[in-house]
Design brief:
Blueprint: E1 6-14, E2 20-29, E3 34-38, H1 45-52, E4 60-65, E5 68-69, H2 80-87, E6 88-91, H3 104-114, H4 119-132, H5 148-160, E7 166-170, H6 178-193, E8 197-202, H7 205-211, E9 214-218, E10 224-229, H8 230-234, H9 237-242, E11 250-253, E12 256-259, H10 263-270
Parallel strand pairs: 3-8, 3-9, 6-7, 7-8
Antiparallel strand pairs: 1-2, 1-4, 4-5, 9-10, 11-12
Helix pairs in contact: 3-4, 3-5, 4-5
Length: about 280
């Protein structure tokens, strides 16, 4: 059996103020999987991504990545530190948080330069990423002056320029217009086809239905309450209700949740004085 890319073993995490972030969470992720981390706001989705990226570390339990335990020492000590940063990319929810160079070209070159790749290889990767994301026209533009959708593409291109095996995505559909969101769904499918492992934190169930094969669901008390096929999770109204992922008036059609207003809601909407 192929060694998992990530093994998360009974991790507990508390924030600096002492509040609980995650409690007894455990799972594994293999190569070329597309996994969604689902949960209500403050359930611990983004925290879990930060832990997988080695940006913070569990108080108890351990995370093993590529066969090595993630610790402050391991993610800062070569050669593993360089290998890990090359193999795992992180698309933040707010793309502006990871765009800080003067031009798009410099933004895409930053990661490969940090990996100490030869100048010719850096140039090739930048050109390939620009072409792949179809943003050649943005090459000389300041990232800070781009639209939200363009910033998302540049942020993703900067990750792909490092050729990672795994991409962590934090609420990637947030703030995107419908056309850009559909583009992202299709592009994620292409990444999956190319062998990239995708781990997406989201509470957008429609987006998850289009992009993920497996779901991990976190409860509001920060525990893992589901680990299985995404389609089964999205068809389980009781599970979604218990995790506060849907409204009580949500219905499931063709495996996808839909919210329908009930008759009394429509009446009160049009007759507010009769409430």
């Amino acid at each position: 059996m192929t060694e998992p890319i990530f093994e998360v073993r009974n991790i507990h995490y508390s924030y600096p103020d002492g509040s609980e972030g995650l409690s007894g969470v455990g799972f594994s992720i293999a190569g070329n999987e597309s996994v969604a981390i689902l949960g209500a706001n403050a359930s611990g989705k983004s925290t879990l991504l930060n832990l997988l990226d080695g940006l913070c570390f569990p108080n108890r339990g351990e995370i093993i990545a590529f066969g090595k335990v993630l610790t402050e020492e391991s993610v800062e000590t070569p050669p593993f530190s360089r290998q890990f940063r090359q193999q795992v990319g992180f698309l933040f929810q707010n793309s502006e948080a990871q765009l800080f160079n003067s031009t798009v070209e410099e933004e895409l070159a930053f990661g490969p330069l940090q990996l100490r790749l030869p100048a010719g290889e850096v140039e090739r990767r930048v050109n390939d990423a620009l072409r792949l994301l179809e943003i050649e026209n943005l090459r000389d533009r300041p990232p800070q002056k781009l639209s939200g959708g363009e910033k998302k593409k540049v942020a993703l291109a900067s990750i792909l320029a490092c050729a990672p095996r795994v991409i962590l995505l934090d609420e990637p559909s947030a703030g995107l217009d419908p056309r850009t969101q559909q583009w992202l769904i299709e592009f994620m499918a292409e990444l999956r086809h190319a062998g990239t492992t995708l781990i997406t934190a989201s509470h957008d169930l429609s987006f998850v239905a289009e992009t993920s094969e497996r779901a991990l669901i976190l409860s509001e008390d920060h525990r893992l309450v589901y680990n299985g096929p995404a389609g089964e999770a999205l068809s389980n109204l009781d599970l979604l209700l218990s995790a506060n992922l849907v409204h009580a008036h949500t219905h499931i059609h063709d495996g996808k949740p839909h919210l329908h207003p009930h008759l009394h809601e429509i009446w009160h909407e049009h007759h507010p004085h009769n409430k």
